[in-house]
Structure formats: structure tokens, C-alpha cells
Amino acid sequence: MSLYRAQRRRIEKRSRRTRCAEERQRCQIVLGLGAGETVVQVHRNLGAARSTIYRVAERFCREGEAGLRDRRGETPLRKVTEEYMQRLEELIYTSPKEHGWRRSTWTAELLTIQLEQDTGLKMSRTHLSRLLRGLGMRWGRPRPGPLRYTSKAAKSRKVNALKRRLRGLPADEVVVYADEVDVHLNPKIGPCWMPRGIQFEVETPGKNQKRYVFGGLDAETGELVWLASDKKNSAVFIEWLTRLQAHYSDSRLIHVVCDNYIIHKSKKTRQAISRLGNIELHFLPPYSPEHNPIERLWGELHANVTRNHKHRSIDTLMDDVDAFLEAATPFPGSQPSLAATA
Predict the structure, then answer these.
(1) CB atoms inside a 10 Å sphere around CB 187
(2) CB–CB of 269/283 below 8 Å?
(3) pLDDT of residue 77 exceeding 50
(4) pTM over 0.85, yes/no
(5) How far apart are CA 290 and CA 294, in angstroms?
(6) Cβ contact 112:122 at 8 Å
(7) Nearest alpha carbon to residue 69 among 22, 34, 5
């Protein structure tokens, strides 16, 4: 076998660039034979079986450089029916537990067994893997996401029902959107302006400390009633409700809209609400921060105070948090990001 100069260069380049180990070996076999090596020498140098070397050489002589490409993906789909392919695609969107298996994810082996039960066709794991790739499937890692208790339609119905319930209330009733936000001594890292080619550093204290802000935003006036604490439990939530009641002492009924966090529904909280008398809790659908206006305020708090901050103590950080919340009332409408220090 002889190779002319340009042909050798193309095959060498192909051998370097290909990601397929089998194609790289075929290129090296042809290059070795083209350089005058015997089949035995190529076998010793590459470790390829002699039958493989003869087969590669014969195919190269018959087809030229086209004979070097990997043809495994061109293997005809033996015995495969339309029913088999449709059932395979359906199974990918289900869990093995739905079909009586203990595993939580499909393997090629388990798919072949399930498909044999469903269609009567027996395939090898290798063949099934090619079928999956042919369907555009890949072996990948799922991304984590929140547990969805309700569909989008059900969530919309619940939100719309809540809006209708709170629409057109008497003058002696108020609506307050409530939520809690975590404040960390270790700063949140966020974008900022910096010279090109230089990356600023944000020092972190090391051992993190946390505080929690319980807040309520008046849906009508934008007033904010908040309480900072080093704990996040039912007792502090009840303390905030008591402060809210004192703030709206002239109101006959205070409607508090909040999420489904456990402290909002605990037995201790329910007992406190019945004791307070004029507070009614309304719960948003799970994972619905977009329907709680106070979430926007917490976003502004992080952007203005906790992001890239340089505080060494949690107390000085909380002083900035209090100053920001003072400047943010009423929200929206105020411009707390433009407030000057005292």
C-alpha cells in the first residue's frame, strides 16, 4: 500500500482531530502500512488484531479515505417496528416505578426488558443505545426544581380567587403581603463596575452569621412593617403579627397574604391568630413568589445592601438594612437606592 504526500497529510490530520478511537486506529493502520510496515509490525506497534488490519487495508484499497469513517451509526435498525420506537419514546418520559420496577431511573438493560414485555421484541443493550441516540435522546443529569403541587392552571385559579376575595374591601380592612428574608454576614456576590482586566475582590468574614427580617407590605399605601430577629420561627412570626396589629389598631380586619412556610401554618400560629381576633391569613399557591409584591422589595434590599458589602459584623450590616427599609417606605415609589447616608 502506498500513499502520496497530500493523502498522508490528510490522514494524519484526520487521526489527530477525530474523537473516535476506532477511526483513529484505522488511520494509524493505513499510515503504518503506507510507510512500508508489515502487518506484523503494525500489529506490534498498535496492538490491533491482524484480522482488523487486513479488513481496514482491504476497505481502504476499495473505497479510499471514505473507508476510514465510522459506520456503526449506519447499521440498519434490525427488527425495529414503529410500535417499538413509539413505546421506547413513551417510556423515557415515565419512571420505572410506574411499571413495577424498584429503580427510579431507566437503564438500557431495564429498557430492553420492559420493551420485550411490551412488544415481544428482544434487543441488545448496545442496539437500544443506538435507537435512543436516533430518537435524539442523551444520557444527562437532570436539573433540580421545585416540587409542583399544582398545575399552572390550578395556580392561576387559586390566585384569581384570592384577588377576587380581596377586591373591594371596606375602608376598615387592609391587605398586607408578608414574607421573610435572610440576611447573611457573608456577602452575596454580584456584578459591579470595575476596570477592564481587573477583578475586584469581596472579602468574606469566614464564619457566617444570619439574621431574619419579617416584613409586611401594605397593598394600598406601600407602608412597610418589619421586625428583625436572629431566629425564624413561629414565636417571632407571632411577635411580628402583634406588631402589625398595633400598627393597624384602627382596622377591623387585617388580611395577611403569605406563602406556605411552616411557621405560617403551625399550631402555635393558628392559636395566636384566634387569640388576636382581627387577623386573617391567606395562602398563595406553593412556589408563587411572582404573586407577592414584597419579593421585589427583598430583591432591592439585596441589590442595595447585602450584595458585595464590606461589613465585618452582623450588627453594622443590620443597621444598613434598617436604614434601607426606612428609606424604602412607601414601596414602590420611593427610591431607596438613591438615599444618602446620614
Answers:
(1) 19
(2) no
(3) no
(4) no
(5) 9
(6) yes
(7) 22
Tens digit of pLDDT for each residue in 289-321? 889 999 999 999 999 999 999 898 999 999 999
Q: What is the CATH topology of the domain spanning 154-338? A: Nucleotidyltransferase; domain 5 (3.30.420)
The answer to whether the beta carbons of residues 31 and 3 sit under 8 Å apart is yes
At residue 81, the 3 state secondary structure works out as coil
Q: How far apart are the C-alpha atoms of 53 and 43, rounded to whole Å?
A: 8
pLDDT of residue 214: 96
Q: For the purposes of burial, counting CB atoms within 10 Å of the CB of 240, is it exposed (0-12), middle (13-18) or buried (19 or more)?
A: buried
DSSP conformation letters of 253-321? EEEEEE---HHHHSHHHHHHHHHH-SEEEEEPPSS-GGG-THHHHHHHHIIIIIBT---SSHHHHHHHH
Q: 332 preceded by cis ω (within 30°)? A: yes
Residue ranges per domain, the chain? 5-70, 82-134, 154-338
Please report, in angstroms and rounded to a whole number, the separation of the first and last CA atoms in the chain.
Answer: 88
In angstroms, the CA 107 to CA 339 distance is 58
State the CB neighbour count (10 A cutoff) for residue 2: 9
Number of other residues whose CB lies within 10 A of the CB of residue 103: 10
Whether 8 and 65 have beta carbons less than 8 Å apart is answered as: no
Cβ-contact 273, 157 below 8 angstroms: no
User: How many Å apart are CA 45 and CA 91, to the nearest integer?
Assistant: 46
